[in-house]
Description:
Mean pLDDT: 86
Distance between the termini: 37 Å
Structural class: alpha+beta
Number of domains: 1
Radius of gyration: 18 Å
Number of strands: 14
Helix content: 10-25%
CATH topology: Thrombin, subunit H
Largest sheet: 8 strands, antiparallel
Shape: globular
Number of helices: 4
Amino acid sequence: xxxxxxxxxxxxxxxxxxxxxxxxxxxxxxxxxxxxxxxxxxxxxxxxxxxxxxxxxxxxxxxxxxxxxxxxxxxxxxxxxxxxxxxxxxxxxxxxxxxxxxxxxxxxxxxxxxxxxxxxxxxxxxxxxxxxxxxxxxxxxxxxxxxxxxxxxxxxxxxxxxxxxxxxxxxxxxxxxxxxxxxxxxxxxxxxxxxxxxxxxxxxxxxxxxxxxxxxxxxxxxxxxxxxxxxxxxxxxxxxxxxxxxxxxxxxxxxxxxxxxxx
Length: 263
């Protein structure tokens, strides 16, 4: 086995171990177009001792949210108990998303998804892209003109257009010399746009740090632009405090504005 193959396998294993339950496939309902992948992101608001206070969002490519009725595919492994259905219909879908400026990214506060699960008597069991996993400005600055192996974790579209298998797409990211845009150099499968992009940053010969670099966007001619997490994090933190009740670990979440959890 070559060193490069071993690296690929180690990074893919780390992605599937830490982030396999972070993704959600969605699509325009009753249509054969507009397939995308969203993922869970926890923005760390505060940390005191063993307690973290976070805002939780879904993140995806803004271009794939511009329609009214969506179908979100539900996977059994995303619940601690049996789900009531294998898909969730969402009306006024575009209105649920908040565009993050000109980044090409949109976010959806996750509270309504948790509220839906409570009404149906089940509970989400997800992996999230956390503050420690999301790329910092220093991580992003390390992407230059030399290709860096990168991995998109998204949901392809099966033959019957409802099966949305999860896939890891292997390629490279590189920074465009002309406009400074970070790009994923391979075409991703239908349905994987909006998915998280990961890289393994080598610390020494034996260790690497897994980093979620950002969001893969629709193809821009030369590969797929990647909206990087340094800018996403900054834009999210400029959003106003959600007015709706968010999620809490206690049995009366309606009184909480933030989701607090003990590590």
